[in-house]
Amino acid sequence: MFTSLEGVRVVVTGGTRGIGRGIAERFEAAGAAVLATGRDFDISTPAGAAALAEAARERLGGVDVLCANAGIFPPAPLATMTEAELDETLDINLKGTILSVQAMLPLLQASGRGRVIVTSSITGPITGLAGWAHYGASKAGQLGFVRSAALELAAHGVTVNAIQPGNILTEGLADLGEEYLASMTASIPLGRLGAVEDIGNAALFLATLEAGFITGQSLVVDGGQVLPESLT
């Protein structure tokens, strides 16, 4: 049995829908005190990230676990991608991750058991997806950040890890249509799309005291999607 997470103070960015909501609900079910944020905080700016940290201090009294999950997944073919589309995706997915961790540092260091858990993806670090080059770049960038941040924060007892979801059944994925969902399901050896609870469970593990010697790592949660050499 893992040590209880009862009373552990958790912030989940992008925690009002999709994977973030699944993460927040799993922590709540485990007895943690959770602050789940949505678009009420613009973590792509230093001021927005600082406001989030202040809200965590006021509402939770501190932060033990930061789940840096906020992100967007807009399509933009490379040939027609605008600078604004590129900037928005990098600002929210990559810059927002960095700024939110930076703003939370004093609280995480004071915790004595600080955890940073970044929601990355298999798209970018492992696989590619036509029409989402900017998204893939942002997710690969997150893993570079995780490794270096883990080194910087180790002296303070703060671990930094990432989860790399495969295709998880969320509102955004459902919007891509039944044909897309069927093709994605067919590519997963376990025979189903992931559930948001699957990512929540991975986050719970990385937040435990028992995971305290794991840092700078990424955990792929994809039902085996990236394993086959071919689909036949």
UniProtKB/TrEMBL annotation:
Family statement drawn from the similarity comment of this UniProt entry: Belongs to the short-chain dehydrogenases/reductases (SDR) family.
Domain of life of the native organism: Bacteria
Family matches, as InterPro entries: NAD(P)-bd_dom_sf, SDR, SDR_fam
Descriptive protein name: 3-oxoacyl-ACP reductase FabG
